[in-house]
Structures are given as C-alpha cells and as structure tokens.
Amino acid sequence: MIGAFRVDPDTRAQEWLRTHTTGADRVIAYDVKRCCGGGKVCMVSVRERSPKDARRDFETAVLGDGTTLLVDRRAARRLPSRFGLTVRGVGPFRRLDLDLSGEEWGALLYD
Fold first, then answer.
1. Which CATH number belongs to the domain containing residue 63 in this structure?
2. For residue 86, what are the domain limits?
3. Whole-angstrom distance, CA of residue 78 vs CA of residue 93
C-alpha cells in the first residue's frame, strides 16, 4: 500500500471545489491509449467517479480540509507524496488539474 497523499489546492482550486460540489467522489484518473506503431498516450484528469471506475484500484489523497480524492493506482505509483491542485482552462473548459513541476509531469506521464 502506498498510503495517503497530501494535496494542496491553490486559491482557485479551493473556490472551484466550493462552487462545484458533488455527491460523487472525485478521481484522479490515469488512462493509457495505444497508438498505431506501438506508441502510447498517457492522460491524467481530475473528474467525478463514474461507473467504469468500479473495476479500478485507488489510493487516497487528502486535502487540507479533509476532503478526499481517489487516485488511480497506476498514477499513485508515479506521483510525489505531496502535490498541488489548480484550475486550468477558459470558460466552459475550466477544470481541476494537478499542479506538478515539469519533472513530476515527466515521471507521471513518461516513465
């Protein structure tokens, strides 16, 4: 077991969480798509838990206020024990996202 992660949301992420309350758990999802030629594309998103997540294994991440997020175990193996949460995008495309350094993104997506 990897243990609980500590997540530090910035001010924009805290506001986004306050204004987008939900009864469902939020998930840090990790998806891998295979391309022709053997390449792979790794994608990370912060979203509500969906029925397709029923077969996935998760670790727990905890925000300062006690709110929990579920972290896909494949991402959990590559994330630092403490990381940030921020808001990215414009208008209707605004969304929660991880706030990682370039090296941390590299370890998550390319190792």
1. 2.60.300
2. 5-110
3. 26
